[in-house]
Amino acid sequence: MQTVETHPTLAGAAAAMRERSRYIAGGTLVMRAMNYGATGIETLLRSGDAALREIRHDSGGIRIGAGVTMAEVIASRELDFLAPVARVIGGPAIRNMATVGGNLFAAHPYGDFTVALLALDAQVIWADGHREGIEPFLAGRSGTRGLVAAVQVPRPATGEFRFHKVSRVKPKGVSVMSIAGWLPMAAGRVGAARLAFGAMGPTPLRAKAAEAALRGVTLDADGIAPAVRVAAEGLAPADDALASAWYRREVAPVHLKRLLLAERRV
Ligand SMILES: Cc1cc2nc3c(=O)[nH]c(=O)nc-3n(C[C@H](O)[C@H](O)[C@H](O)COP(=O)(O)OP(=O)(O)OC[C@H]3O[C@@H](n4cnc5c(N)ncnc54)[C@H](O)[C@@H]3O)c2cc1C
């Protein structure tokens, strides 16, 4: 038999975590796993902590509660730059339930929002208050048992953040790959760019070779050519039912180019 415990605070839920318990946020993945007979989950822990639903500015940027849904991201004026990411996650029913916190733990082919968080160099804020960069968080994600309270992102200047999801079924298909880019500009040239790919490794990964090749260039076909050439360098895509690793490596430069030149494909 499974039980559900509701805790008034996230810290309370974190303290109650034990061997065969699982936190449930929107439940789009947890409930599906349970419906398919996931063994090993005896207790579902949830929390009605109001802070989980907050979106607010603080000293380091915009703090997004882990319980904020994709629909709430789309509706938030503060998070207008992330609305194009949230809009391509599932259909309306999923977006009403799927949370930012749950997306941090969503394995491939999911986790599109986390690709954006990686490009934006987000901070992950745990229930006990300690902070961790998104990269170390992702590297250690499989072993984690703590609860996330919020993420914090900087607000990029207008036009400096871009996101592109490649899927076979439109508009609701899962990602063959997704790419997010944070491209700070100075005097018409790219500064310290951050590029993140989803579905090009076991977790979202940065394309560091392409980032380095973008430094100081103009965002036109000639300027970005060296970065496009090394798009997949350092990435480790897998074969799966959606695409082969070979195919992903072949098309990564095409999609990176579209992102960088802001070419739209529907
Ligand atoms: C039909 C369908 C379509 C989908 N399409 C997409 C898509 O296009 N793109 C995409 O990215 N995803 C997609 N998803 C996956 C999923 O809906 C999202 O990734 C969503 O953001 C997960 O959030 P959730 O709140 O529902 O997670 P839950 O199912 O509640 O939890 C998922 C995991 O995260 C853990 N967790 C949740 N919150 C926290 C927290 N605060 N601290 C610690 N651990 C936590 C849970 O314990 C669990 O292990 C889809 C799912 C379905 C069913």
Q: What's the SSE blueprint?
A:
Blueprint: E1 3-7, H1 10-16, E2 21-23, H2 30-35, E3 43-47, E4 55-58, E5 61-65, H3 70-75, H4 83-86, H5 92-97, H6 100-104, H7 112-119, E6 123-126, E7 131-133, H8 134-139, E8 148-153, E9 161-167, E10 175-182, E11 185-186, E12 189-190, E13 194-198, E14 205-206, H9 208-214, H10 221-229, H11 245-260
Parallel strand pairs: 1-3, 2-3
Antiparallel strand pairs: 4-5, 5-8, 6-7, 6-8, 9-10, 10-13, 11-12, 13-14
Helix pairs in contact: 9-10, 10-11
Bound molecules: flavin-adenine dinucleotide (FAD).
Describe this structure in words.
Helix 2 (30-35) links the parallel strand 2 (21-23) and strand 3 (43-47). The chain is an alpha+beta fold and 266 residues long. The protein folds into three domains: 3-47; 50-153, Uridine Diphospho-n-acetylenolpyruvylglucosamine Reductase, domain 3; 161-260, CO dehydrogenase flavoprotein, C-terminal domain (Enolase-like, domain 1, 2-Layer Sandwich). The radius of gyration is 19 Å and the shape is globular. Helix content is 30%, strand content 23%. It has helices at 10-16, 30-35, 70-75, 83-86, 92-97, 100-104, 112-119, 134-139, 208-214, 221-229, 245-260; strands at 3-7, 21-23, 43-47, 55-58, 61-65, 123-126, 131-133, 148-153, 161-167, 175-182, 185-186, 189-190, 194-198, 205-206. Helix 9 runs antiparallel to helix 10 and helix 10 runs antiparallel to helix 11. It has a five-stranded antiparallel β-sheet with strand order 4-5-8-6-7. Strands 9-10-13-14 form a four-stranded antiparallel β-sheet, with helices on both faces. It has a three-stranded parallel β-sheet with strand order 1-3-2. The structure holds flavin-adenine dinucleotide (FAD).
